[in-house]
Amino acid sequence: MPFFVYGTLRPGQFRHDLFLRGRTLNEEPARLHGAVLYEGPGYPYAVEEPGGVVTGCLVTARPEAYPTLLAELDRLEGYAPGDPDNLYERLARDVERTSGGTVRAWVYVAAPRVTARLRAHGTRIDSGDWVDGR
């Protein structure tokens, strides 16, 4: 499955070159419906919420790079399956291509404890676009 990235992994952002450069087949603008963004410490968090829209990029990894990239992104995002201390959860969600159509993609969204903290005390990015909102 491709990845939907909305923060530091987007093209032009500092982690894009570190993790994705030369490892992708395709990168295209996309939107995630049913989520909103919150500011984090130098990176954003997506939080699932009906009616929200997050702007980002749909990234399709090269097949030979996929297993390693998936493991590296899980580590980067502080995600391990079933770990209650996760910062993010990796979920399969439908993502809308701006060119038309939808595709199922991996999305890292704020883990439940992080979501509760953000909703209580976080700064929401009303535009849904972390890059334009900076």
Automatic annotation (TrEMBL):
SUPFAM superfamilies: Gamma-glutamyl cyclotransferase-like (SSF110857). CDD domains: GGCT_like. Gene3D superfamilies: Gamma-glutamyl cyclotransferase-like. Pfam families: GGACT (PF06094). Residues 3-131 form the Gamma-glutamylcyclotransferase AIG2-like domain. It comes from the Bacteria. InterPro entries: AIG2-like_dom (IPR009288), GGCT-like (IPR013024), GGCT-like_sf (IPR036568). This is Gamma-glutamylcyclotransferase.
